[in-house]
Design a protein that fits this description.
binds zinc ion; 6-stranded mixed β-sheet; 15 strands
Length: about 270
């Protein structure tokens, strides 16, 4: 009988970006706060996502080391650069770890506009951007426990995934899931919104006891209520797109509906460029 798994979450706070806001309102440009998740057993550990900057990835590596486990696997939930730019730093600290993502996520990762991100975060990204290896299976293991990859199509990102750990009723949602943080809805279409909501309903159906969001307000609890809130944000955004008559009105209305949420950034709603 395998011993029970544990989980711990690393919160990386918001960080300032260099560049102009896509609309002349909201706070100065910043990247929303984000998470990396460590799942660990008696001896081994799996890390989910690796953050963005060298400073974040170095801090994450030091934090992982405090758990005194062998990092055997790094799973990247989707192909957006903010979730895997730190990978080369992690692999330097943990050369024995294998870094994987779904083949579709690796394709999206390969297409990321790295030079553009280097302008937003000058001097802060690792010199080497390492891609995870395509992993075509749906399951991998940690000390005999199943970790299941759930492919969810286009949500926040194309070909997004969540990781489900049935033995501890854990969902690590990647960017399918947000928690008290304004969501990236700039690319939303009715079809994407519908698919994203179906993906969230799929996570609810798993009845998890913990659900960890890819972007969350630091310190927010990793409770499954975040799944319902992420869905509500999408529904309210779709409704307010119809009901408001200007970008400013829409932006302000979302801020009023979700007060105190992190990263009320104009770019999350209107795009980075
Ligand atoms: Zn993200």
């Amino acid at each position: 009988m395998a011993s029970a798994l544990s989980v711990n979450v690393f919160d990386a706070p918001e960080k300032p970006l260099v560049g102009d806001r896509p609309r002349p309102f909201g706070p100065p440009m910043a990247w929303d706060p984000m998470t990396s998740t460590l799942i660990y057993g008696e001896n081994d550990a799996v890390l989910v996502d690796t953050l963005t900057t060298v400073a974040e990835a170095e801090a994450l590596a030091a934090w992982v080391k405090l758990h005194h486990r062998d990092l055997t696997m790094i799973y990247i939930t989707h192909g957006h650069l903010d979730h895997f730019a730190g990978l080369s730093v992690l692999l330097r600290h943990f050369p024995g770890a294998r870094a994987i993502a779904t083949p579709k996520s690796v394709e999206l990762a390969r297409e990321q506009p790295v030079a553009f991100y280097r302008k937003l975060l000058p001097g802060q990204l690792p010199a080497a951007i390492t891609l995870p290896e395509p992993y075509p299976e749906k399951v991998f293991h940690l000390e005999g426990h199943e970790l299941r990859i759930i492919e969810q199509g286009h949500t926040d990102a194309a070909d997004s995934t969540s990781l489900y750990v049935p033995s501890i009723d854990l969902v690590v949602g990647g960017d399918v899931l947000y928690n008290q943080c304004h969501q990236y809805v700039a690319k939303l279409t009715p079809e994407i919104s519908e698919n994203w909501i179906a993906a969230l309903d799929g996570l609810t159906a798993l009845n998890p006891t913990a659900a960890i969001a890819g972007h969350k307000k630091p310190g927010a609890p990793d409770t499954p209520e975040a799944i319902g809130w992420t869905k509500r944000y999408l529904i309210d955004f779709g409704r307010l797109q119809e009901e408001t008559s200007s970008d400013r009105e829409l932006f302000d209305a979302m801020g009023q509906l979700f007060p105190g949420w992190a990263a009320h950034q104009a770019w999350l709603m209107f795009g980075l460029r």
